[in-house]
Specification:
The chain has about 325 residues and is α/β, with parallel strands linked by helices. It has helices at about 25-30, 40-45, 90-100, 105-115, 125-130, 135-140, 150-160, 180-185, 200-215, 230-235, 250-260, 320-330, and strands spanning about 50-60, 65-75, 100-105, 120-125, 145-150, 165-170, 175-180, 190-195, 220, 245, 265-270, 275, 285-290, 305. Helix 9 runs parallel beside helix 10 (about 230-235) and helix 9 packs parallel to helix 12. It holds the Pfam family SpoU_sub_bind.
């Protein structure tokens, strides 16, 4: 091997080499190095809002000036929001559920639209029904209210019933009146229905429909929520829109107040003191007491008792909704 190809090594040198240590991550983060970033104050930025400002700038050439408007930052005090709750807030959801109800069935929904369109919150309809309610859909679109076109399966889930009729509304409840407040206003001629322990939605719907048919405008109940059942409104076929609920604390207190107000109280009974329907004489102000069971314990000393049949081979009487129709027909004619 030639000398020119031999490797050479430097044995004596003035240079020294040291291994560069890597700084730990924690120590590196603790070092505050100057960086090329603009100064930023979070304290001031929280109160900054963009507000238009106008400045007067000289024109090129130094002759005249021109007004220039631009958006800049201005410090304003931060205002705490005290406005209405978001529609998704739990408190508002709970309140809405108490104030709203669902109505389904074509006749019930169309009657509500005719009488209280502003109460509608949301609508669901099937494709077939949507072709029949063009006016209702146009109203909702014009007033920016939501509506959904769904299939029968989803409609059954939304309404909670297979008898939805292709349409379901979410609406605001009409607020019930109190019987006490109603009696404070003199009523020279009046007919009321007092509902005693009636919980069946089909019976309630039939009573509401019959009352609307004969022009009775008020029913008395100590459980007004039963009258807001969607099934009752479907059976009423729109009649619920024309009858208001008078809320009483109990049936007994309602009867006391009605007697003091001069109303004739009429019960359906089969006792010795009951008279046939054709012999019953009604006054100007009358209340018919309706019950799914016997209401003999509610009969007062001066109350009227009427018999609807002289010979009844059945163990029980008629359905309470049918009784309502018979009594109101007597009152009406």
């Amino acid at each position: 091997m030639s000398k020119s190809n031999k490797p050479t090594f430097q044995t004596q040198t003035q240079k020294s080499f040291q291994e560069k240590r890597r700084q730990p991550f924690g120590e590196k983060a603790a070092v505050d190095k100057p960086r090329n970033r603009p100064a930023f104050s979070r304290k001031n930025s929280d109160n900054e809002t963009n507000e238009p400002r106008e400045l007067s700038l000289n024109k090129a050439g130094g002759k005249g000036s021109v007004a220039v408007t631009f958006k800049g930052s201005a410090n304003t005090s931060k205002v705490k929001k005290n406005g209405p709750l978001s529609p998704r807030a739990p408190e508002k959801i709970k309140k809405n559920r108490a104030e709203e109800m669902k109505v389904y069935g074509e006749e019930a929904c169309l009657a509500l639209f005719a009488e209280r369109p502003q109460a509608i919150v949301r609508l669901w309809a099937t494709v077939a029904m949507s072709h029949k309610i063009g006016e209702l859909l146009s109203y909702l679109a014009a007033n920016k209210k939501a509506y959904h076109i769904v299939d029968n399966e989803e409609m059954a889930l939304v309404s909670g019933s297979e008898h939805h009729g292709g349409i379901c509304l979410l609406v605001k409840k009409s607020r019930p009146l109190t019987l006490t407040g109603y009696l404070e206003v003199a009523q020279p001629n009046d007919c009321l229905l007092l509902l005693d322990r009636i919980n069946n939605a089909q019976n309630l719907g039939g009573i509401l429909r019959t009352a609307a048919f004969y022009g009775v405008k008020h029913v008395i109940s100590d459980s007004p929520d039963n009258l807001y059942a969607p099934a009752a409104w479907r059976v009423a076929e729109g009649g619920a829109e024309y009858v208001r609920v008078l809320h009483s604390l109990s049936t007994e207190t309602a009867l006391v107040a009605l007697r003091e107000a001069g109303y004739q109280i009429v019960h359906i009974a089969n006792g010795e003191q009951s008279v046939p329907l054709d012999q019953l004489k009604l006054g100007a102000k009358v209340v018919f007491v309706l019950s799914e069971n016997s209401s003999d314990d509610l009969i007062g000393e001066n109350d009227s008792q009427v018999r609807l049949s002289l010979r009844n081979p059945l163990k029980h009487g008629l359905n309470v909704a049918v009784n309502t129709g018979i009594l109101l027909a007597k009152w009406y004619f």
